[in-house]
Write a structure and sequence with these properties.
The complex is a heterotetramer of chains A (102), B (122), C (374) and D (232). Chain A has one domain (3-96): Helix Hairpins, CATH 1.10.287.3510. Chain A contains 3 helices and no strands. Chain A has helices at residues 3-24, 28-52, 57-89. Chain A starts with a helix and ends in a 13-residue tail after the last helix. Chain B is mostly helical and 122 residues long. Helices cover 57% and strands 0% of the residues of chain B. Chain B is flat. Chain B is built from 3 helices and no strands. With 374 residues, chain C is mainly alpha-helical. Chain C has one domain (49-373). Chain C has helices at 8-43, 47-50, 54-59, 64-85, 103-112, 124-139, 159-168, 170-181, 184-215, 220-225, 232-235, 237-250, 275-300, 312-333, 339-366. The longest helix of chain C is centred in the first third of the chain and has 36 residues, at 8-43. The chains are: A mainly alpha (102), B mainly alpha (122), C mainly alpha (374), D mainly alpha (232). Chains in contact: A-B, A-D, B-C, B-D, C-D. At the A-D interface, helix 1, helix 2 and helix 3 of A face helix 1, helix 2, helix 3, helix 5 and helix 6 of D.
């Protein structure tokens, strides 16, 4: 096996773990964790390809950095939403957030 | 990447030393110090009073905005570090981008600081 | 005084800690075996060469022994100095001529024999391990600071940011410590500390941009070497002042010791800690202070630049000693300020000042006055 | 990569995937948040291993230094599930440690075997190496989960495992294709100038737009977190 394969497989493992969490958890905080894991897996993928395919390392790092910054913004907004939901109903279970159900 | 000639090797040695000395200090009192447990001693310490009410309390979120600002500035300053690194490159990249970044950050800063001063808002 | 049954927890915990301890000791011995052998083989022929060996650096000079020694002297000096200012005597009996200089060793022995009280309702794994992490996190930055181009353990291309990374771990540790104590005072104290650290990290980073701009590098050795002709404190004085103030806030030193305000919050986030864990926190904090003082010296005070009659490392040591003295003397001089004042001062005064300093550097560069640095 | 580098990378992989699973599966949310910061740390170790130092430092400062703190803070605000006896959780940790060591041993053994024999391993065998840990870890995740289960919970579990397998299965094809490529495995030297050139030169405008996005996210978050006037 070559090195690129190893790192891409690592990123795939993280991605799969993230998808598992996203599908099976009902706690909003855990869902946020899963999203973070998925985003991190993506940035690892970018980094691995940049290192082992002869591309511009600077560009690859910038793109991964943008991914990270985006995820930071997402975490800030998501946490504020979760705290607000907790204030309104005293629970962060996404199954119970069904006010909009017809 | 990894060998006795490199700094990283010695970094790991240093970290291990710190870990070992910390754990050593943690282990020593198991042998030296007495351990006589009692209910009052292990109760929560609240300056001599009996702790009233629940142990964990809900607290006001008054300065939460500062934490959000911290996250925002953290990311931006990492960009500014790159700009500062290339500052002496004959002004190749100019001052437009950092100026724009800082200008973009100012409104949320003012908003958050203003809000955090009013206790009733939280 | 009823005896409560000893839980299974401590048995398991002691086993786990011992296993980790033995494993890391074995790894350390394995890693040190080769270098130590080579040192022994050449030491008799050439003792001078040992002084620039990495083993020497890690164990003695910029590493553990030196940092621990400076931290020790700083603790003693802080007590003695504050006592003198407040017309007390301070440490007196242990140790002969300077007066009580062995007091800390006496205290260490006392603390080792003290009972470690673990509150019943605390979250025990985090409660016990948090001080160890605080100690590690506090002592890791020492690795990165160069004492001269040869005396540096880890010469990292983005060393300045890595230094900030290590100090940025600290809020995580103290939040966990305050939470796991399960005490109202602890948690309020740790929240205060968190807000304070988060608020003052930003001016710290912003003011550290000035040396990076002037030296054109993020490698600490390069930044220090760039100050051979002129120290950066002369070029960017505002940045230096902001940096020093933020250091005081990060270290929870006296005008900013709100997290541990002993007259309001018992001991802040350290309320439930006693004995050895408390010692680990305090010692980690003082080693962190040494690291910050050396970073301030490298960034603004010219690093190892000095006259030729002393080796560059000695100049660095002298400057660090001066900076540490200034830091600990604040305890005697300043009152404590209020939480909201502190936070809004960080965001509304220090950040604009740091940005102003950067703007002044840009203007100087545009006028062509910074050409002498190149 | 040398053999030592391989072992290091495998250890990091085991650590990081363990942390990711613990973040999702640990009983208390605070422990989950701490494990999540461990996951971020492990990922930055991957970046350092790849030689992308600035990216690794960025990851550490933003994720471990800021995002983790924010998440931990929010989790502590929300409160936590009622405490379980510590013995059970610690027993779980012991089991986890055993699993971790076993996994690391399996990984290390396989890696040593391949690097010693230097065989042209066939693709199915490689895929097995990749699938193995995921199967083990996911089985563990299903067997030992902390959150109280509702009646419909097992259905979600099943969905989760199925989804993870589908995703990973779709990666496998790509993985076996990557095995046939010839990659550039020489040394790369990190240079800050590269990053500066691309971040300020090529993507400068994008950086400012990202700043705008971050600022608006902070605006929104502050506005959400503050109390409405009417609710006392």
């Amino acid at each position: 096996m070559n090195e690129l394969q190893f790192f891409v497989a690592a990123s795939a493992i993280f991605f799969a773990i993230g998808v598992y969490g996203l599908l099976s958890k009902r706690n909003a905080v855990r869902i946020l964790f899963s999203v973070e894991i998925i985003i991190n897996a993506a940035s690892l993928n970018i980094a691995a390809f940049a290192r082992y395919m002869p591309y511009n390392l600077g560009n690859a790092q910038s793109i991964a950095i943008f991914v990270i910054a985006l995820a930071a913004a997402e975490a800030a907004a998501g946490l504020a939403l979760i705290i607000e939901a907790f204030r309104l109903r005293g629970s962060v279970d996404v199954e119970e957030m069904d006010e909009l159900k017809g | 990447m990894f060998g006795p000639g490199q700094g990283l090797y010695w970094f790991i040695v240093f970290a291990l030393l710190a870990l070992i000395s910390g754990l050593l200090f943690l282990i020593i009192p198991f042998f030296l110090a007495p351990r006589r447990r009692s209910a009052i001693k292990e109760d929560t310490f609240e300056a001599g009073q009996l702790p009233p009410g629940a142990k964990r309390i809900r607290f006001a979120l008054q300065y939460y905005a500062y934490l959000l600002l911290f996250l925002l500035f953290d990311v931006t300053i990492m960009f500014l570090f790159v700009w500062a690194y290339s500052f002496f490159g004959e002004g190749r990249y100019g001052f437009a981008y950092p100026l724009a970044l800082i200008a973009v950050l100012l409104p949320p800063l003012i908003y958050a600081v203003k809000l955090s001063k009013i206790k009733e808002m939280w | 005084m009823t005896e409560t049954p000893r839980g299974d927890f401590f048995k398991t915990f002691r086993i786990v800690v011992t296993i980790v301890f033995l494993a890391s000791t074995a790894l350390l011995l394995y890693m040190l075996y080769g270098p130590a052998m080579s040192v022994i083989s050449y030491f008799l022929r050439d003792p001078q060469a040992f002084l620039v060996d990495p083993l020497f650096m890690v164990l003695i000079f910029p590493g553990l022994t030196y940092a621990g020694l400076v931290a020790y002297l700083a603790i003693w000096g802080e007590r003695k100095f504050a006592a003198k200012v407040q017309n007390r005597v301070g440490p007196l009996y242990a140790g002969a001529l300077p007066g009580g200089i062995l007091q800390n060793i006496a205290d260490l022995v006392k603390i080792l024999f003290k009972e470690v009280i673990i509150p019943r309702d605390s979250d025990k794994p985090i409660f016990i391990l948090a001080p160890v992490f605080a100690f590690i996190v506090g002592s890791l930055p020492v690795v990165l600071v160069p004492y001269s181009p040869t005396y540096v353990i880890l010469d990292f291309p983005v060393g300045l940011i890595l230094f900030f990374v290590f100090t940025a771990f600290y809020p995580l540790v103290l939040l966990l410590a305050g939470w796991s104590s399960n005490n109202k005072f602890s948690f309020i104290g740790s929240l205060r500390a968190l807000y304070q650290q988060a608020s003052y990290e930003i001016p710290l980073f912003l003011s550290a941009l000035a040396p990076v701009m002037l030296a054109g590098s993020l490698r600490l050795v390069d930044i220090g070497s760039a100050q051979g002709s002129v120290w950066f404190i002369l070029v960017a004085p505002i940045s230096a002042i902001v940096f020093f103030t933020s250091i005081l806030a990060e270290l929870e030193k006296y005008p900013f010791d709100i997290p541990e305000a002993d007259s309001e919050l018992v001991a802040g986030w350290l309320t439930e800690y006693s004995g050895v864990p408390y010692l680990l926190y305090q010692f980690g904090a003082y080693i962190k202070m040494v690291a910050y003082a050396s970073l301030f010296t490298v960034l603004f005070l010219g690093g190892w630049a000095g006259f030729a009659f002393l080796a560059p490392e000695w100049w660095m040591v002298i400057k660090v000693a001066i900076v540490v003295t200034i830091v600990i003397s604040t305890r005697a001089f300043f009152p404590r300020i209020r939480m909201d004042q502190l936070l809004s001062a960080g965001w509304t005064k220090l950040i604009p000042l740091a940005l102003l300093s950067l703007a002044s550097l840009v203007v100087l560069q545009m006028l062509g006055l910074l050409a002498f640095l190149r | 990569m040398t053999r030592l580098d391989y072992l290091l990378a495998i250890a990091i992989l085991a650590f990081t995937s363990l942390m990711a699973l613990l973040a999702l599966e640990s009983k208390s949310l605070v422990y989950g948040a701490v494990s999540l910061s461990g996951f971020f740390l492990g990922l930055s170790l991957f970046f350092f291993e790849l030689g992308l130092l600035y990216l690794g430092v960025f990851q550490l400062l933003v994720y471990v230094g800021a995002v983790s703190v924010l998440i931990l803070f929010a989790v502590m605000v929300i409160g936590h599930t009622p405490r379980k006896p510590t013995v059970g959780r610690f027993g779980g940790l012991g089991f986890l440690g055993g699993l971790f060591i076993a996994l690391a041993a399996v990984f290390a053994g396989l890696a040593m075997l391949f690097s010693f024999l230097d065989l042209a391993v066939d693709t199915i065998l490689q895929s097995l190496i990749y699938i193995g840990p995921v199967v083990v870890l996911l089985a563990f995740a299903v067997l030992f989960r902390g959150e109280p289960r509702g009646r419909s919970s097992y259905r979600f579990e099943a969905f989760g495992v199925l989804g993870a397998f589908l995703i990973f299965g779709s990666f496998l094809g790509a993985l076996s294709y990557l095995g046939s490529l010839s990659v550039f495995s020489g040394d790369v030297t990190f240079s800050m100038a590269d990053v500066a050139q691309s971040l300020l030169g090529q993507y400068g405008l994008l950086m400012v737009v990202l700043g705008l996005l971050l600022a608006s996210a902070a605006f929104g978050a502050v506005a959400l977190a503050k109390k409405e006037k009417e609710e006392k």
